[in-house]
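Researcher: Here's the sequence for the chain we discussed earlier.
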Amino acid sequence: MPLTYRALDPTKIVETIERLEERIASRFPGSGLSRVCSDLAGVAKQTSQRITYVDRPNWTLRLLLLAMSGSSLLILVYLGSQAAALKGTDEWSETVQGLDALFNLLVLLGGGAFFISTLETRWKRARALTALHELRSIVHVIDMHQLSKDPSSDRPPTVGGKSGDRKMSLFELMRYLDYCSEMLSLTAKCAALYAERLSDSVVVDTVGDIERLTSDLSSKIWQKITIIETLDGRDVPLPTIEQSQRTSASS
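Model: Thanks. This is the structure I predict for it:
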């Protein structure tokens, strides 16, 4: 039975991001945040494809490594048998040069085998790091969208749309910031997929950096949400199901 709840499912992550994109587009149609979420959904789909590549073994390199290792072993056995057979005979000094050449070949094959054994990991690491840098860039783009949404500012926050910029209510501002926090969390989940499938220290450290970055930024966002909830000494209530349905129907 597959361990469904012990590993992240790339398909579920993509579906969650797509649902979030629909929610943002419904409440803030034509906004920059909805376009960023659309880009994040596209990157998440690419992540699912890239994870398949990272998880798939490179049989060409592995067969080449096996052939080189087998050749090295055969040369080593031959050197040992020749040394045992010719030791103490007159032919020993004449055969040393040939054995020395085979020994040098053995060293070269060993070095080549070591290089090939690390080549697959380095290729996968390079591809994973490229994707992780892309996810980190999206994190900073999301952060740029929430930076200007300061509830304590003298200027009321605005949001872009199909009909131009408009002022946001406190409730809309709280929803906007909440969407930013969700996007940060889902971006970190996309990054975590690489650490699950590729146990490379550089990749794992990079994923950890992205997770810490998204966590820190989410903490700042929730500080703003707390300010909104306590603004003017009153709480801003969350919408009920009926209110959400009326809002969706009116939009």
